[in-house]
User: Fold these one by one.
Assistant:
Number 1:
Amino acid sequence: MAVGIFDSGLGGLTVLDKVQQKLPDQPFVYFADSANAPYGVRTADDIYDLTTAAVQRLFDAGCKLVILACNTASAAALRRMQEGWVPRDKRVLGVFVPLIEALTERQWGDNSPPREVAVKHVALFATPATVSSRAFQRELAFRAIGVDVEAQACGGVVDAIEEGDMILAEALVQSHVEALKRKMPKPDAAVLGCTHYPLMEAEFQAALGPDVQVYSQGNIVAASLADYLARRPEMAGEGGETRYLTTGDPRHVSARATQFLRRKITFEAA
């Protein structure tokens, strides 16, 4: 049984790449809603409607477990979906919780009261919709106390990456880091709260400096998914093949994806 991986565009490929490495025998279906990307500037209701439509497409493709490899969708739609939309025999998980568990050094399923942790000052780089949702701060508050979070909405970065303009993306990263540092001069850690941003991780690290630990989601989500499937083997499958679906132009999206992952990726129309 395939696991669905959803993103509004191609950023989720950074997660898919890591989970494929971690789980080489697990089949996946990747869905990119490229025709409607980016989600980061949309309203919460719009994000919810688009995300449920995409996840339903993955359910129809035979997936019982779907990972929202899109921080905007995880922030703006996941809780609402889990509370009233997801069927009893299906599961939809986000990418925020595994990252926060890593940040706060918690094991999966640790529901003990929030406690003090080593990290005190966290810089969050995310899309405008993710920042406005405050979902990261809410999930963090369930697990840790005494952590100061300064969020920076990184407008334009996703668009630049999707268009392949990495020079513009690098300039925008530098600008957003400088804006964050004016509010929080010395963060202990930085969270790349968008699955596109790992493609610019080196640029974020260079702008932040060597003393700031940068948390990126690919390896963290891969380890969390491997643990989940070990505990829920009925959600796993065999074969290792991956299908790639998109609402955009398959040829254009395939070319961009191949450029991102530096291996041939072929999308089909969703």
Number 2:
Amino acid sequence: MLSEQSVPVVRATLPAVGAAIGDITELFYRKLFDAHPELLRDLFNRGNQASGEQQRALAGSIAGFAGLLLERPDVRPDAMLSRIAHKHASLGITSDQYKIVHRHLFAAIAEVLGDAVTPEVAAAWDEVYWLMANALIAIEARLYQEADAAEGDVWHRMEVVERREETPDAVSFVLRPADGRPARPFRPGQYVSVRSELPDGSRQIRQYSLSAAPGRPDWRITVKRVQGDGQPEGEVSSWLHARVRAGDLLTVSMPFGDLELADGDGPLLLASAGIGVTPMLAMLDHLAATGSARPVTAVHADRTPADHAHRKEQRDLIRALPDARLHLWYEEPGDQAPQASTGRADIGALDLPAGLTAYLCGPVPFMRAVRGDLLRRGVPAEAIHYEVFGPDLWLGQQ
């Protein structure tokens, strides 16, 4: 928790820091990359930097963490910290990098806020930073220990043993360790990072959910090509679609991610939109493989049936479970899905059992709407779990 002397200082300055946090994070990244261009080339997502999403995510996490320290001083925000730590571990972040971030972040704070950053203010926000950083370092150390990996040493080579076109914009890759050993175990819902060596010499990293159950000799990821809608084309997804074939080798991390299917026999809601179906497939596959009799309500929303990756597989897995239902919504169902509803998913219209645990994955507006519907229906917030592809712009806003 914050020290007694820092609480009133952070409380008094949080509105000013919060109002300027966007400028602070933008300047911070500029300073960081000027001093360490290799971080932008080989670690940070250049697309998210260009769109501003990474800056907004960092701003949200800092402001959200500081606010929680003030509002709930006796409770550490473990959900927020765990999500960030898993992402950091999947990137191979090391504890010494927090010192680099600290130096450039506080230089940006001083430059943006000027004379308002008195020694007292600097000391209080330094405490906020290191409370958050040291908590993350501790969680990440535990994740590395659980993975039996040295700090940051999460990468290994995997061979693509199968490539399959799932939709015009989604392709799946079956991966097998290049050293001949079985693939590492993971928990349904987790993801891996893929480090791609691009034509300009950069090594960009992206995360992809494991889209089949654990316990097999191979892994599977499904990659949607990012394109259009006014956004920059996804350089890694486009490279994987255009270049990677069976027999190629990829550099892949160990599995991480805190969206994990919990053990038990209680009812489940698996709600997804678009490529967010991938962690739900791993959960459904695991339930079917283990003979689970848990009640399952699966919800999926997509633009059209043709855009629904693993559509047949999802339906087959639902049929393989003794107490499972699938509800589909398409913006344009057409003749391929006469049983599907038209428009956006409406959780409020479903008959949901009491005591359910919900897992959500898809665009943030979709998850925000589903989560709101569930909360209004009395589902406790702690029973609702989610995964975001890319920077988590939801941190600190729930």
Number 3:
Amino acid sequence: MVIISAKKLLMWEKKQLLKGGDKKSLNLLIDLLGGLSKKEFNFLKIKPEKKVELKINLELLEYFWEKHLNSSIPIQYLGGISYWRDLKLEVSSKVLIPRPETEILVDIISERFKNKSKKITFVDLGTGSGAIGIALALLNPKWDGLATDIDKNAIEIASRNFTKISNQSNLKFYLGNWWNPLINFKGEIDLAVANPPYIPLKTYEELPKEVKKFEPRIALMGGEDGLEHIKEIVRYAPSYLKEKGLLLIENHFDQGDRVKELFLENKFTSVKVLKDFSGIGRFTIGRYK
């Protein structure tokens, strides 16, 4: 640990922002690598005479800040941590950094399953860091969760996250592509949720370099039209869902109508496209028969 004055840290912050970047990213760096939260940092402005305890010294923090500025590597990967909802998740370049809009998936499910005494079996397809699956497992300890991912590194990260965050045992992890590892659960799933790779090839090629260069392509690119993985998930869902089981998918901002068609083509009913924070049709939900 390193102890410095609040005044020195505040002056250091001003100096770093003159180099470029934005205040939000720098605050996140100070939080993840320095161990000082944004709330604690803002409090220093009121009491600049206060002493501050940091995990690493300012020289090392400056090194990481300049690395971020020069290479565009996301702060979350530098710190190995991402905040999502009320979770603090381990992340690496092997998993996607969970996005704020994806949090809405959990809110949609919470609203649909208000009867907290009812036991359900849910699956988080393509779990990545485990964000969605862990949030759902914590939402109701009576629920049994299954989480799949094609990448062994992602499964290991998600499993560690669940162990660190919770002492529950209601979420299990399976290695394999989408539904494939769940052959023994056919016809037993009440709810399936997925935030699959849905970015069309042309759009992927135009992504900012901090995304395209560092985040896993396998977790982003959805083929020529962005629907490659969504088609597979929807097509095989009826084999795994119970009758009246729900499927909820996050899709690209302009894919809502087409994804809705895919649901209807595969015998889903009550299909709706739901909006994100920006009023964009980001999520598609349907009931199997």
Number 4:
Amino acid sequence: MLPHREGHRGDRIGWLRAAVLGANDGLISTSSLVVGVAAAEPNRAAVLLAAVAGLTAGALSMAAGEYVSVSSQADTEHADLARERGELAAAPDAERAELAGIYRTRGLSPELAAEVAAQLMAHDALGAHARDELGIQDLTRARPIQAGLASAASFVAGAAPPTLLAALLPTGMLSGGVVAVTLILLLVLGGVAGRLGGAAWLRGALRVAFWGAVAMGGTAAVGRLFGAAV
């Protein structure tokens, strides 16, 4: 008989957060940059330079920020595991009693809790304490390099459409075309992210598109204001 395997949304949390954040940021920030620069200086070379610079700087910034952030989480996990490993070596009986106490609070009888703690510690003492005492599980472990690469790649994927539009659209259609395409992509991205996370797709789509429209409107206003002043 084949083992039963269930697909849960929790196993997506590590990459989903970084991917959605990166794509969102890449699409909104680069589109806003294109629209803002186009409002100030409707020159293709200037707009395209701003888009490419924004894509490059944003991808590197996202990768570095995510790597540093997740590395801090990983450092905390390693320190907690090292401390737990030392406690298990110094006082295994006390650690067994502590684990049994956790299981009693979850509803097991004292006898069963003691038996479960003894068997789990005999199998993998550190793993049992990491999971049930510290809340550290393999699916949610910090992976800095994976998170950094996912953020950078997703930022580039999000920033690519407005950058390509800046290179291909006629100057007169640039702002309107970028805004329209960006809003459509934000609706799709928000809907997909909502579905993957288990939420209603419409709510996810609308909230992402709304804040994207606010960002583009704000940068367009700034670009027009300062462009006119110059």
